[in-house]
Design goal:
single chain; 5-stranded mixed sheet; 4-stranded antiparallel sheet; 3 helices; 42 strands; about 5% helix; globular
Length: about 650
């Protein structure tokens, strides 16, 4: 009898634990695999119109005393565990809030340098881990990890926010130490994404200024002991061992000596398989590959590593010999798909080139067919662009791959005429047209296609939800010899265009780029300029796509808008997303793409929202607001729940 009773109590405790986990948001993508799916359904398609603001918290980082050398972007997705929200800020501060009221519980400030122009002055969040071997009252039993712009990995006690003294040196590990190539200046190496904790390893990537010099900082991915901060392993995406099968895919002056190919986006994990999934970027410099000929394998790839050792398990390259800044910005998303009548554990990788690749989680082999297709060659002396690139066969491009002159768009005849005139002199042969001294139309642009907002998966409905941009860019390589910046700047101003210039030192060229906009400031590509796309994971086809955002005065939803930030999905049949520049949080019907509700924000939510159920039993939806630049300055954390 007593053994039966003990068993019943044990089952109740397990059930209670599972319920608590369902109520929480314990990782950036809610689960280690980053599905961003919540089983909560209190807010559903029938009542979402009753959503109202529950509370607002401000980090204070827009105040003058927090002034920085360059604008910051508040891109955090908070975690919620044990009734507390935890979030990171661009200045590396970690803030703990009461999940019910938004009241501040503690703030940790690492006092990073603010006079440094960090490459991407942003922070997307924190990670957490519990040491189950410690008693609940022990300091640092639950740890909060943040990797900040100053390249420190910090471990904090979750209850009071003080550093865990047994981790690294007084709670910190300096991530600049031990790199194959150290950063050439403080701004050239930083952290933007949260660490990933897998079992007893905390894994970090890096953000690198990779279009400035041929040998920027190296992009090692590293695993540290979650308790002590001791380095357990390091994996270099640019192979250094001649026995590595990818070694021969790096040829040229700098080849194995270059840097970059780093993982600046979110790293996901399958703890049960002891795997981490790394989204890598391009090797340096982005737009000139003469010094790094070959496919450059492991750059621009989805890479599966053994979490405990860092050993390479498999790699799939999404772009060969990248010349377009087509980093894998979206996190790899782990899901079980029922494609072609067979259930398989998969990795979904959305790309800036507008593709969605679905790969077997254990082998990296395509689940949905992929084929190599011919792409245009380069007209830059010495450049050997890849002859083919991988394309998804079943799923159509998530954003356009070509712009014909007759498809050029503009709100007025003058706009359309100016856009066509600008297009005439450019190389325009579709996706993967290499950069050129003539100038190249790049579609999708360097912001994507799919971007770091990534993918959300509804496992019940078998849908992958992906936000995309549908805007082109103009990229041009300018001969360095005879280049006069003052004269060029004056010319740019006369044309009414703001170009971004990158030095690409030691190469024969400078690079300049801008979005392909008309005189009105609106894109020359046809609307919608931003979309939300749903892919059916059973068939591989696009189920629906809807404009995301609204531009114009008054705002026109048919135009969509540029967007950065991700979606989440819930059991209530809702996609929540902010992302667009029009200062709104949206609720969208998961099955149809129809907008069900829109909540006004004080700036744009250039972040991914999250949802949880508090101790009172109410479901909250929370978004960080203040993405900077066109998205608007802000330091808000805003929570919504159902009104009475």
């Amino acid at each position: 009898m007593w053994s039966w009773l003990r068993g019943a109590v044990a089952l109740l405790l397990v059930a209670g634990s599972m319920d608590a986990q369902e109520e929480e948001w314990p990782a950036y993508g809610r689960d280690p695999g980053g599905t961003r799916y919540s089983p909560l359904g209190q807010i559903d398609r029938a009542n979402v119109g009753r959503l109202t603001r529950a509370w607002v918290y401000r980090t204070g980082e827009t105040r003058p005393e927090f002034a920085t050398a360059r604008r910051t972007a508040f891109e955090a997705t908070p975690l919620m565990v044990d009734g507390t929200l935890y979030l990171g800020t661009p200045l590396g501060r970690v803030i703990a809030l009461d999940a019910e009221t938004g009241a501040e519980r503690w703030v940790y400030d690492p006092q990073i340098r603010r006079d440094v122009r960090y490459g991407d002055f942003a922070n997307r969040g924190v990670a957490t881990w519990v040491d189950s071997s410690m008693s609940p009252e022990r300091h640092c039993r639950r740890r909060i990890f943040i990797a900040n712009a100053e390249s420190n990995l910090v471990a904090l006690d979750a209850r009071v926010g003080t550093p865990c003294q047994d981790f690294g040196r007084s709670g910190r590990v300096d991530l600049r130490l031990g790199l194959r190539i150290p950063p050439f200046e403080p701004a050239a190496y930083s952290m933007t994404s949260p660490p990933t904790v897998v079992n007893d390893i905390v894994v970090v990537g890096s953000s690198i200024s990779d279009n400035t010099v041929p040998r920027p900082a190296s992009g090692e991915v590293r695993g540290f002991d979650v308790r002590t901060g001791e380095l357990r392993w390091s994996w270099d995406p640019i192979p250094q061992d001649s026995a590595d099968p990818a070694f021969g895919q790096w040829v040229g002056r700098y080849a194995h000596k270059t840097g970059g190919a780093n993982a600046w986006s979110i790293i996901t994990a399958d703890p049960s398989r002891d795997l981490v999934f790394i989204p890598t970027g391009s090797a340096a410099p982005d737009y000139y590959g003469v010094f790094r000929q070959g496919d450059n394998r492991y750059a621009n790839s989805v890479v599966a590593l053994r979490a405990s050792t860092g050993q390479l398990v498999w790699a799939f390259q999404t772009v060969h010999h990248d010349l377009w800044d087509y980093d894998n910005a979206a996190p790899p998303t782990l899901a079980t798909v029922r494609y072609a009548g067979r259930s398989r554990d998969a990795v979904l990788q959305a790309t800036k080139s507008g593709m969605l690749f679905v790969l077997d989680r254990e082998t990296g082999e395509p689940i949905m067919p992929i084929e190599e297709r011919p792409v245009p060659s380069s007209d830059v002396p010495g450049e050997i662009a890849a002859a083919t690139q991988p394309f998804s066969v079943v799923t159509p491009p998530l954003s356009p791959h070509r712009l014909q002159p007759e498809d050029v768009w503009g709100p007025t005849p003058d706009d359309r005429s100016a856009c066509r005139a600008a297009l005439e002199g450019l190389r325009n042969e579709g996706v993967f047209t290499p950069p050129s001294p003539r100038g190249t139309l790049m579609l999708p642009s360097n912001i994507g296609g799919a971007h770091w907002g990534g993918v959300a998966v509804d496992p019940t409905r078998q849908l992958a939800i992906v936000p995309v941009n549908r805007i082109a860019a103009i990229v041009q390589l300018l001969p360095r010899e005879g280049f006069d910046r003052a004269t060029q700047t004056a010319t740019d101003r006369m044309l009414g265009h703001e170009y971004e210039y990158n030095a690409m030192r030691e190469t024969p060229y400078l690079m300049r780029r801008r979005l392909f906009l008309g005189p009105s400031g609106l894109p020359c590509t046809p609307p919608p300029f931003g979309s939300l796309v749903a892919v059916d994971l059973v068939s591989g086809k696009i189920r629906w796509e809807s404009p995301l955002g609204a531009l114009g005065d008054p705002p026109n939803p048919a135009l969509g808008a540029p967007n950065l930030g991700g979606p989440i999905v819930t059991a209530g049949g809702i996609v929540f997303i902010a992302a667009a520049i029009d200062r709104s949080l949206r609720a969208v019907d998961t099955e149809t793409g129809r907008e069900l509700w829109r909540g006004a924000l004080p700036a744009s939510g250039r972040a991914t929202p999250m949802t949880y159920r508090s101790t009172s039993g109410r479901q909250f939806v929370v978004i960080a607001v203040g993405g900077g630049d066109l998205f608007g300055a802000g330091d808000y954390v805003i929570a919504f729940h159902l009104g009475n």
